[in-house]
């Protein structure tokens, strides 16, 4: 409980303020509480239903077999040479897996050599929790077969696995726009070695207006980096811990992506995305005091390949954790954050039991 409450409250003054929060987050559970405390038998059975629901959720939440894992995927694993001229040519298209929620789209940049390691780990942990859709972007290679059931997009002309992945990143954004702009509210560019706490991400984004041009992540002043054609007051979002674009931002930059690709001033993919967004969407990466704790990028651990541990103050805030290069570390964080979530749900269940108890006595 403490984790949930304090974490949520402390988010508000800084990042949430910076993205000018819309005031639609109402605590549904609290409302239930007030209404129910005055009600009778009918309500008791209703709560019991809720409690049983929770109980079922608790028992299955960590190991529910995901039906998506077994369904076929339409990702055409065919390389077609050429560059898209107007829109996308026949044969290119989204993969079929999509949850019925239309909130968040996450594009994960990966490479052929990670299809059977990092990609599987992401998809089996936070990837399958996304309220919307996740797709992985890699070059196509017949020798590296896509793991079954995982939505990998390999058919965008011009995408290869060269590093830095500027082309992959820009073309991925174009793809997101062309296929999904009206389907999702938020578009995230992620790496294959980031852990995303999807429940916290969703809660945060639900309280922000995606019709505004927003560009959210761990901001870094462009001063430190290639500043060409960016002023020192501009900032870009670091790529590693994930970059969030509102629908409006993606809509604004999409027509200019080929221009941005032709006019790059550095080898840093995230700087170039930032430059493009600044120029065509007129926004900088949101600056707030707490973004380093929310989008956590541990440079000290970078060489070790994974974040060793989170310090206590961080756990309340953190939404993304980077880097976790080894698949094992993704499962480690998945277990850890699932346990935290479980605690919150158990606490809530206890509260409901107490309410039932009290009401039964009053009857
Ligand atoms: C979201 O932002 C748009 C554009 O600024 C505005 O028209 C709309 O009223 C806002 N919606 C809410 C719920 O604040
Ligand atoms: C860009 O944004 C700034 C403030 O954020 C505003 O003053 C300016 O008019 C905007 N420019 C364009 C071209 O929309």
TrEMBL record:
Keywords (A to Z) from UniProt: Glycoprotein, Glycosyltransferase, Golgi apparatus, Membrane, Signal-anchor, Transferase, Transmembrane, Transmembrane helix
- Asked if Membrane is a keyword of the record, the answer is yes
Predominant place of localization: Golgi
Q: Name one Pfam family in it.
A: Fringe
Where are its TM segments located? Answer: 44-64
Report the GO terms under cellular component.
Answer: Golgi cisterna membrane
Q: How does it sit in the membrane?
A: Single-pass type II membrane protein
Region annotation (Disordered) ranges: 1-22
Top-level taxonomic group? Eukaryota
Q: Where in the cell is it found?
A: Golgi apparatus, Golgi stack membrane
Similarity annotation: Belongs to the chondroitin N-acetylgalactosaminyltransferase family.
Q: What is this protein called?
A: N-acetylgalactosaminyl-proteoglycan 3-beta-glucuronosyltransferase
Q: Which organism is it from?
A: Branchiostoma floridae (Florida lancelet)
Q: What lineage does the source organism belong to?
A: Eukaryota, Metazoa, Chordata, Cephalochordata, Leptocardii
């Amino acid at each position: 409980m403490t984790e949930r409450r304090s974490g949520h409250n402390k988010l508000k003054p800084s990042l949430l303020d910076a993205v000018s929060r819309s005031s639609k987050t109402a605590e549904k559970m609290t409302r239930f509480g007030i209404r129910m405390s005055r009600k009778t038998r009918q309500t008791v059975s209703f709560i019991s239903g809720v409690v049983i629901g929770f109980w079922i959720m608790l028992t299955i939440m960590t190991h529910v077999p995901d039906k998506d894992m077994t369904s076929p995927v339409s990702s055409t694993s065919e390389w077609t040479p050429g560059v898209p001229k107007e829109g996308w040519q026949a044969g290119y298209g989204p993969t079929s897996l999509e949850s019925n929620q239309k909130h968040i789209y996450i594009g994960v940049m990966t490479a052929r050599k990670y299809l059977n390691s990092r990609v599987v780990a992401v998809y089996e942990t936070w990837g399958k929790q996304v309220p919307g859709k996740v797709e992985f972007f890699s070059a196509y290679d017949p020798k590296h077969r896509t793991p079954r059931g995982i939505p990998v997009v390999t058919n965008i002309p011009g995408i290869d696995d060269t590093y830095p992945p500027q082309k992959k990143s820009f073309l991925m954004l174009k793809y997101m726009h062309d296929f999904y702009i009206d389907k999702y509210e938020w578009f995230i560019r992620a790496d294959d070695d980031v852990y995303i706490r999807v429940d916290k991400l969703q809660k945060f984004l639900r309280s922000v207006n995606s019709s505004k041009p927003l560009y959210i992540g761990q901001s870094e002043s462009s001063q430190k980096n290639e500043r060409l054609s960016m002023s020192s007051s501009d900032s870009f979002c670091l790529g590693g811990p994930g970059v969030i674009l509102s629908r409006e931002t993606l809509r604004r930059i999409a027509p200019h992506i080929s221009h941005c690709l032709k006019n790059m001033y550095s080898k840093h993919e995230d700087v170039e995305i930032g430059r493009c967004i600044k120029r065509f969407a007129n926004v900088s990466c949101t600056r707030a005091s707490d973004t380093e704790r929310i989008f956590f990028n541990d440079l000290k651990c970078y060489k070790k390949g994974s974040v060793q541990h989170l310090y206590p103050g961080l756990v309340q805030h953190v939404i993304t954790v980077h880097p976790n290069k080894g698949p094992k570390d993704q499962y480690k964080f998945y277990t850890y954050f699932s346990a935290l979530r479980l605690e919150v749900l158990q606490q809530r269940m206890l509260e409901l039991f107490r309410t039932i108890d009290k009401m039964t006595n009053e009857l």
